[in-house]
Amino acid sequence: MKTRYLIAGLILLSFTSLFVGVSSITPMDLLDWSSEETQIFLISRVPRLVAILLAGAGMSVAGMIMQQLSRNKFVSPTTAGTLDATRLGILVSMLLFTNATLLEQMAISFAFALAGTLLFMQILDRIKFKDAIFIPLVGLMFGNILSSLTTFFAYRSNVIQNMSSWLQGDFSMIMSGRYELLYISVPILVLAYVYANRFTVAGMGEDFSRNLGLNYKFVVNFGLILVALVTVTVVLTVGMIPFLGLIIPNIVSIMKGDNLEKTLPHTALMGAIFLLICDILGRVLIYPYEISISLMVGVIGSGIFLYLLFRRKAYA
Amino acid sequence: MIQVRELSKFYGKKAVVEKVSVNIQRGQITSFIGPNGAGKSTLLSMVSRLLDADTGEVLVDKDDVRKMKSNDFAKRVSILKQSNFMNVRLTVRELVSFGRFPHSKGRLNEEDVRIVDQAIEYMELGDMEDSYLDELSGGQRQRAFISMVIAQDTEYVLLDEPLNNLDMKHSVQIMKILRRLVDELGKTVIIVLHDINFASVYSDRIVALKDGRVVKDGPTEDIINSESLKEIYDMDIPIKQMSNCRICVYFNS
Ligand SMILES: Nc1ncnc2c1ncn2[C@@H]1O[C@H](COP(=O)(O)OP(=O)(O)OP(=O)(O)O)[C@@H](O)[C@H]1O
Ligand SMILES: [Mg+2]
User: Fold this and answer.
1) Ligand 1 proximal residues by C-beta, below 6 Å
2) Contact B128, B136 (CB under 8 A)
3) First and final CA of chain B: distance in angstroms?
4) Could you tell me which residue ranges the ABC transporter domain spans (chain B) (predicted)?
């Protein structure tokens, strides 16, 4: 697929997204700057769209970097415990500070996300049995352990209600005021692009990297920091979006290979488009109600994930 | 010149490379031979900094390799390991282009592109340059890796059993290319070979390792004789002279 078509599709879908919703808004309404429609548009629709685009692009690119650095196509924030570690971090920040500011939550959950991911990478290093499918299973188990810890402590301290909003990704609550945290993913995406070649080299393995004069450890750690940052901003603003970081990079890899400098823009675009489609479907399928984004992505995503699994098997 | 001084590597108490000292002259092909487990790969890995030595030092043109910056080192010394597992989906051309990474960090200029073109042409990979590595045969992939190392364009090129997986034609082709790199471009090639006849026909010097020690080190003609080979391999190998080449007939000894 040409990048050109992707961009055209993205613009079309973005437009659709802006004008789909419970209160009907037409482009004509916006001509009146003070109308209620314009207010809704600015306070809810635009932030929602921006959040979807940034979260979709961010999670896909984060997944792509993880797969490259771990040299395993099935490692992603979902399958390496990053998402669960982030939630544990959010819980801890809520327990430590009764009224944690967004920045405090962000800092603590970032530390957890990074530590969780690094821990998983350590486990990965020590596993002798490096079957492509076995490793994400280990990651899922690892994530589940973190997740049960979170649930356990959340129950004990009666914050399970507050936590549940981070259990499921949901764009319907996105309003101006909180989603701005997602803007952090813009400079991160730029940095990821600048480092794309280094990530590709790191993906060739430690010996190749050393032969090419790359500071392997630094690049891997740097990449994981970017991944943790993106994941944290998305979970804090939108919630968990499973599978996105897994399926989009895999599809791009099959179509265009793993030369990140070439595939990163593609991955970001595809991620944004995929999430946008899921969101629009979620909003129109049971109109006037909404299906949450994590459910939509979970259903469509796990289907694609299964397909990828079988496909891998076929030519492994 | 690469000077290896008293280099040792221990795994547990066992020394797999023990106080090895050799000098590798510029502008020559030096072949390392020796039985399985002799320590050849370990030695090459230490020289190329993939592995830390336990004792001793390696000097490249008088510079201690441990003190060189990674990127500078990568412009002077390249290595291709014995087995290369890579599951990054790159095309042949993309892979070879990454050989320029130490020089260009991925932004290829005209000169880089020319060198990449040449490296691809050397390895006769032109008609598969846009194929993905995972769609190639083992030997084709091996040639792509060698092509990448050639594109890296370093003064010293270290190759650990590069003829693995290659058919006769391509083995000969690669040895001839290495000869050209040395004779025409003044490169220095250090290569591990199991087929002593390739070592005999193409190398200037041979270093034989056994049980982690150097047992023979000298010009090719001094090593390729039944006596020395007996010492290295514990086999009686007759030598036949055939039009300038000394061939070791080891198949039924
Ligand atoms: N990581 C390791 N841990 C323990 N022992 C090792 C390790 N790597 C290599 N060895 C041992 O070191 C010795 C030398 O290995 P090396 O790979 O250098 O041999 P080689 O001469 O390259 O052999 P081959 O011709 O089979 O490639 C072997 O006995 C091997 O078992
Ligand atoms: Mg070896």
Assistant:
1) B 11, 16, 34, 36-42, 82
2) yes
3) 37
4) 2-236
Alpha carbon B17 to its chain centroid, in Å, reads: 18
Residue of A73, A207, A212 with shortest CB distance to B81:
A207
CATH code of the domain covering residue A13: 1.10.3470.10
Q: Which domains does chain B have, with CATH numbers?
A: 2-248 (3.40.50.300)
Q: What is the DSSP string of B196-225?
A: HHHHHHH-SEEEEEETTEEEEEEEHHHHSS
What pLDDT digit, counting tens, does each position of A5-63 carry?
A: 999 999 999 988 888 776 677 777 777 777 777 877 787 788 889 999 999 999 999 99
E-strand ranges in B34-98 read: 55-60, 63-64, 77-80
C-alpha span between B155 and B186 (Å, rounded): 8
Kindly give, in sequence order, each residue whose CB lies less than 8 Å from that of residue B120, ignoring residues fewer than 6 positions away. B92, B93, B96, B126, B129, B147
Rounded to whole angstroms, the Cα distance separating A154 from A161 reads 9
pLDDT attached to residue A315:
45
**Of B9, B11, B158, best ligand 1 pocket probe by most atoms within 8 Å of the beta carbon:** B11
Q: Tell me the pairing of strands B2-11 and B205-210.
A: unpaired
Query: For chain A, what is the domain count?
Result: 1
Reported ipTM: 0.91
Q: Is A204 on the interface with B (CB under 8 A)?
A: yes
Q: CA of B229 to nearest chain A CA: how many angstroms apart?
A: 33
- Buried residues in B65-74 as b, exposed as e (16+ CB within 10 A): beebebeebb
pLDDT at A69: 93
Tokens of A70: 């771990």
Contact between A278 and A20 under an 8 Å Cβ cutoff? The reply is no
pTM greater than the 0.95 cutoff: no
A82: exposed, middle or buried (C-beta count within 10 Å: 0-12, 13-18, 19+)?
buried
With CA atoms as reference, report the closest residue to B187 among B82, B77, B110, B104. B77
Residue A27's domain comprises: 3-314
Question: CB atoms < 10 A from the CB of B79, how many?
Answer: 24
* Amino acid letter, residue A112: F
Report the alpha-carbon distance of residue A148 to residue A84 in Å, rounded.
Answer: 9
Measured in whole angstroms, how far is the alpha carbon of residue A142 from the centre of its chain? 18
Residue nearest (by alpha carbon) to ligand 1 atom 8: B42
